[in-house]
Amino acid sequence: MAQETSHTSASGRGRPPMTERRKAVVRMEIARAAVALFVERGVAGTTGEDIAHSLGISTRTLWRYFPGKESCVRPLLSTGLDLMAERLRSCPRDVALLDHLELTGAFDADTDLVAGPVADLIWMTGREPGLQAVWLEVHHAAEAVFAGIIAERTGAEPEDLDVAVQAAALNAALRLAAEEQAGYRRTAEEAPPGGMGELVRRAITAAARGLPAFAPATAAGTGRGADASRGVHHG
């Protein structure tokens, strides 16, 4: 349960400031509580006071972490994108992106990045304008991160059109895969074999044809030359 916090006063009394790690834990606790209430009561039927009360904190403390009730869910929506950014940063220059993601477990059938409350939340973003705005904001921020990673790999600027297109393609692939998986979990329709991992594979395979930055480096060091059958475009 989240706990009330107080800042250290000028005289040195009171608790020390929270660490960034502890703040992240509290933010995630708030996010999970908010989703549970949204599922139970709907967004319109849930107030910031309700979210705070469910955690045993004051509304004032809640608003220190988030500007509005819909934004409380942001940590749950950004977790999968943060993990993907880490995988992109660690992708060796001589390994195709799809191969690297396979090795790091991105395509595992039992991945839980879109499961439980996260699946409920993503499903609701298509029906609740306030949550949809947060979902799109999260992906907009992730796209900028992806552009920075691609720019670093290619030596281009993040604002370069080629970089921006690659980042947008990757970002869209991840968003669509997550939305499709959430839809399967919320309906009676049977999901395809492989679950979320297979959906991510299919989406990124399609997007990777336009992601030359992640093609294996050739002997000449051009950074291109992946087999098109692996889903990476030849230059």
TrEMBL record:
Any single Pfam family the record assigns to this protein: TetR_N
Record-linked InterPro entries: Homeodomain-like_sf (IPR009057), HTH-type_TetR-like_transc_reg (IPR050109), HTH_TetR (IPR001647), MftR_C (IPR041347)
Gene3D superfamilies: Tetracycline Repressor, domain 2
Keywords recorded for this protein, A-Z: DNA-binding, Transcription, Transcription regulation
Presence of keyword Zinc-finger: no
Polar residues composition bias: residue spans: 1-11
Entry annotated with the keyword DNA-binding: yes
GO molecular function list: DNA-binding transcription factor activity; transcription cis-regulatory region binding
DNA-binding residues: 47-66
PROSITE patterns: HTH_TETR_2
SUPFAM superfamilies hit by this protein: Homeodomain-like
Domain called HTH tetR-type: residue spans: 24-84
Residue span of region Disordered: 1-21
Protein name as it appears in the record: Transcriptional regulator, TetR family
Lineage of the organism: Bacteria, Bacillati, Actinomycetota, Actinomycetes, Streptosporangiales
